[in-house]
Every structure is written in C-alpha cells, then in structure tokens.
Write a structure and sequence with these properties.
With 452 residues, this protein is mainly α. The protein has one domain (3-443). Helices cover 79% and strands 0% of the residues. It is built from 20 helices and no strands. Helix 4 crosses helix 12.
Length: 452
C-alpha cells in the first residue's frame, strides 16, 4: 500500500474516533493525528520546525482577524439591519421567508465565517418565519444550514485565505491580487446562491408554502431610517477589494511599483477585519456593549468559539508542513492521475474525495493540507488552476458543513427548527446532491464565471 494512503488513513481514523466515539472537539483530533504521525514517521526532531512553519503563515493571522471581526459584528448586532432589509424586500413574495433565508444567511455567513454560529444567529429569525409560512420544519432547517455554509466560499470569509495561499504558492509568477481572486469567488458564489434559490422555489411549489404575513414584515422605510449605518458595513468590507481589482495596474502599481502593489493587496486581508470591527463599535446603537471592559469580556467569553477555529487551522498547517516533507500530496496526486479518468472523471473523483473527507475533516484543514495537490491534479487534466483554487472553499468548506456526520450546520438548523432527524437527513440529501452536481459543472468550466 502506498505510504500516502497509510498516513491519510491514520489521520482519518484518529479524527473520526476522537470526534465520533470519544465525543471530543475536532481540533484535538487533528493535533493528536499530527503527534501520531510524528511517532510513525520518526520525525520528532522536526516537530518545532513544523510548528514554526504554521505560525509563520501570514494567512493564519488573517483568519484570526476575521474571526475576531465576526464576534464583534455578532455581539453589536450591527448586521441585524441588513437582515431586516432583505426580509422587507423579498419576504412578501410566495416562499419569501425561504429566499430571505438564502440571501441573508449567505451574506451573514460570509462575514462570520462560522457555519453553525451563523445558523443559530440568522436561523433564530428566518426559521420561525419559514415555519409560519408553511415550510415543513425539516425543510426550514436545511434551507438555513445550506445557505449559511455558503459563507465558507463567499468573501470575506476567513476560510478563503488558505485557498489563495495554496494558489500563490504554486503560481507565484502569475501575480494574482487578493481583489482579483475575490472577484472570481463572488462569480462562483452567484451560481451557488442561484442554485439554492431554485431549490427553495421547487420545494415551495411542492409544499405549497405562503408569503410572510404583513405583520411579520419589517418596514423598508423604518429599516433604512434606523439601520442605515449597518448598511454601510458591506461597502466598508468589500470596497477595498473591488478597488484593488479594478485599479491594480492603473493606480496602485504605477504609484507603489509592482512589489508595493502586491504587498498592499496582501495587507488588505490583515487590516480590513480591524477596520470593520472599529466601524461596528462606532455604529453600535448600544454603546455600553463596546466599552473596553465589555469588549474584553466579549472576547474572553468567545475563546471557546475562537480556539477551535484557529486550532484546526494551526494544526492543519502543521500537518500540511509534515505532509510536504513526506510528499503525501504529490504521491496521492500521482495515484489520482494514474487512474487516467480524463477531465470529467478526475473532477468527479476529486469532488467525491473532498465530500468523503469533509464528512470527518474540517474544510479549512482540507484546503490547507490538500489544496495544492487538488489544484495540480485538476490543472493537469485541463481545468483552470485559478478556478480550481477559488473552488477549494466550496468543495472542501461547504461540503463539510452540510454532510453528516461532521455536518454541524444541519444539526444546528435541526435544533432550531425542532425537526425530525430522519426527515431532515433525507431532505438534506437533495441539497448535498445539488451541491455536488454544481461543483462538477463549475470545475468543468461549463458556466461563465465573473473574473475569469
């Protein structure tokens, strides 16, 4: 048996047992698998080097920045006005609560980068509204969870920075800026948002759901009047990346030089989270929430939220560094290439592999550990490497959230909706199948993508 399969098997078994049997957090399982792999390969002497490699990755600190931003945005409720605006605009159409859930949850998920957290925050509003409109509980749970996990693939989610790192490591001479990469990500995301809207429309027809009642709809005029500050948040977050994309050559490069423009683009990831968090503090209606002592307590109470996300990324980078020395990704890529499936077969195989691994391994770890290999393998069969890199958060991050047993989004939605597990699971299979098919279609290049 190839050594890469042994190492992967060890990692998968440890994580599955630790998470499913021992009932401990996934990040602990990732760390344990790293320790066991060190023991098996006898690379104890290089352990500190792998830790240093992980801690030296600037993308890790970008992730920390965005996670911290998401906590402040959630606690200050600055984005509630955005959700209210979406409900006021589309809640009045048939099945409007479902469409509002898709749009609001995708937007919220992109800002928070936390699938389960977004389900609980946004779902507290959208799931009851859907149920009162005639959506079955199990359908409401799945609409919310599947929409929320799109946040893993929509900028500025922290999960995306690892995909950009994988691409730039493989193609450093292509000089792709953060803004250019994000435009492609938005182009991809539009198709997946449309897919979920079509799914909601189909289920609305099947279950004969109704519009939201007028009493439940927020007033558009009042929303704009009272929450206009919150509506500026998307502009503050997204505008720097759009400007970077549009004016990289004509403005930034001419003034800062090619190297300066490149580092300016990279630095956006580090400072924009802080800028957005500061804006949320200034715009918060309740100023008591953003007092220094309250902020300190806020982050102290949120350590349990921050630690798992950052821990998974950190330990994932450590395993990725170890696997780099062991040539695991290259060996596994060689195995997939040797199958000689052709372009379509290879795309289906990679999507199936990420779906299976996503059942037990967090998407961020998959991107970090296997992202470069997936890009290389799919590029060899004719896929656009930039498109593949931009799809990594989708095929890894989204799938892991909607597919049991690691599908925490489904469980969070099921808890809020108080839905039956069997009905929720069976309905969820339709969403997983639709997600899988669209992944294949996009990777094959059969759809036009903005930015490519």
């Amino acid at each position: 048996m190839p050594s890469c399969l042994i190492y992967l098997g060890v990692m998968l078994v440890v994580i599955i047992v630790w998470f499913s049997v021992v009932k401990r957090p996934v990040y602990e399982g990732v760390l344990l698998s790293f320790i066991l792999l060190l023991a098996i390969t006898g690379r104890w002497g290089d352990a500190l080097g792998y830790v240093n490699d992980a801690l030296s990755t600037s993308l890790l600190y970008s992730m920390v920045s965005f996670v911290a931003m998401s906590i402040i945005l959630t606690k200050t409720k600055i984005i509630d006005s955005c959700i209210a605006l979406i409900l006021s605009l589309i809640g009045r159409v048939t099945g409007g609560a479902g469409y509002a859930a898709v749009v609001a949850s995708a937007f919220m998920g992109a800002l928070s980068g936390s699938g389960p957290g977004n389900v609980m925050a946004t779902g507290a509003i959208t799931i009851p509204a859907m149920k009162r409109s005639g959506f079955p509980a199990h359908l409401a749970a799945n609409i919310e969870s599947n929409a929320s996990y799109m946040g893993n693939m929509i900028p500025p989610s922290s999960n995306i920075v690892a995909a950009l790192g994988a691409f730039t490591a493989l193609y450093p001479t292509l000089d792709i800026t953060t803004g250019q990469f994000w435009i492609v990500l938005w182009g991809i995301s539009l198709w997946f948002i449309l897919q979920r809207v079509v799914m909601v429309w189909s289920f609305c027809k099947y279950y004969k759901v109704k519009p939201m009642s007028k009493e439940e709809l927020p007033s558009f005029k009042d929303t704009i009047k009272t929450g206009w500050k919150g509506l500026l948040l998307p502009v503050i977050i997204l505008l720097p990346f759009i400007l970077d994309y549009l004016f990289k050559d004509s403005f930034f490069t001419s003034r800062l030089g090619a190297t300066g423009a490149k580092y300016f683009s990279s630095s956006i990831l580090l400072f924009i989270g802080g800028v957005a968090a500061l804006f949320a503090c200034f715009a918060a209606e309740d100023k008591k929430v953003v007092r220094i002592d309250r902020l300190a307590k806020m982050f102290g109470d949120s350590v349990k939220t921050i630690a798992p996300a950052i821990g998974v990324c950190l330990f994932g980078y450590m395993i990725g560094s170890l696997f780099g020395d062991l040539n695991v990704a290259d060996e596994m890529g060689g195995i997939i290439t040797a199958w000689n499936f052709g372009k379509l077969g290879t795309v289906i195989a990679v999507c199936a592999i990420t779906c299976f691994m996503g059942m037990v391994i967090p998407g961020s770890s998959l991107v970090v550990i296997f992202g470069p290999m997936f890009i290389t393998v799919l590029a060899e069969v004719g896929c656009d490497p930039l498109l593949v890199a931009a799809m990594l958060p989708c095929i890894c991050g989204v799938m892991c959230g909607i597919t049991p047993p690691l599908g925490l989004g489904m469980y969070a939605g099921m808890t809020l909706a108080e839905s039956d597990f069997d009905k929720t699971f069976k309905n969820n299979l339709w969403w997983v199948a639709a997600q899988f098919i669209l992944e294949v279609v996009v990777l094959m290049g059969w759809l036009p993508i903005l930015g490519l």
